[in-house]
Design goal:
By secondary structure, this protein is an alpha+beta fold. The protein contains five helices and five strands. The protein has one domain: Beta-Lactamase (2-Layer Sandwich). Strands 2-1-5-4-3 form a five-stranded antiparallel sheet. A hairpin with a 4-residue loop joins β1 and β2.
Amino acid sequence: MDLAAARTHIAAALARMNAAYGQLVFDEWAVLAIGDKGVLAYTGPRPDRFRREMPDDAVPLRAEAAGQPSGVGDTVFALEAGGTRYDAFMRLGEASYLVCNHTAKSMADIRTNPSWLKVQPVLFELGEKFRTDPLEE
C-alpha cells in the first residue's frame, strides 16, 4: 500500500472509532518510518512541536513494546502514558508505524469508557488491512 492509501484508511478508521466511541479517541496520529525518513504524515494539535518532542513522547510506548513481538498489523498500547506521550502504535510495514495519542487523556482513561469495546473491532480491521497489504517503504 502506498502512503496516500494508508492515510485514507487511517483517517477513515479513526472517524469510525470516534463514531463508535461517541467522542474523540485520539486527537493526534502520525505515520513514522525508522531511519532517515522519520515522520511521513502527521495530523494533530501540535505540528510545530511533534518532531522535537517525539523522542520523549515515545519512551513509555517503546518500553511497553520492548521484548514483545510485533508483526505488521499488530498494535501495542501504553496504558499509563499521559499527555503528549503516545498511547498506541500499530506496525504498518517492515519499518513503519502508526502512532496514536490523545494529548489530554491516557489510554487507561480512554479504556474506562464502555464504548472502548466498540472501538476495538475497527482497530483490528485496520491492522488486518496492513497485514494483508503493508505500507510500501
